[in-house]
Amino acid sequence: MLQPNDVRAYLLDHASRIAPADVDSLVARAADVREKTGSERGRHPLFYRQLTVALRLLADHASGRCAQIPYHTVCLLAAALYYWLEPLDAIPDFVPVAGTSDDALVLELACELGAAGLDRYCTFTGIPLATVLPGYQPR
């Protein structure tokens, strides 16, 4: 059975391998990502908000519009989006209802691990951090 520490280790390992070209590739696929994102709005509202903000953050980072975000946060979010785009993961996406639950968990963990950078991005854009990371208390 998959444990939370397994997910954390997976995410940190994959984030450590993200290169700027990988972020650019995700940004170039933004239309595909947005199309897939739309189906999550009603089923997983927090997941949908996190996906939307993650995609914006990556685009703003890649364009140089928001260069003050730590690359660690960028890599965590990129790794989580790559996981989500993979249809055959821990719980395959075609499994009704539960298929995106693991994807939501991976993205939520990426947001938590990269919370300081996400906080900076939300401050920069005026997005209320509580809509993306409910309960997060900046240090």
Instruction: Sketch the topology as an H/E string, one letter per element.
Output: HHHHHHH
What's the total number of strands? 0
Low-confidence residue ranges: none
Helical coverage, percent range: 55-70%
* Structural class label: mainly alpha
Count the helices. How many? 7
Verbal overview:
Helices cover 63% and strands 0% of the residues. By secondary structure, the chain is mainly α. It has one domain. α3 runs antiparallel to α4 and α5 packs antiparallel against α6. The longest helix is centred in the middle third of the chain and has 19 residues. The N and C termini lie far apart (33 Å).
List keywords for this structure.
139 residues, mainly alpha, 63% helix, globular
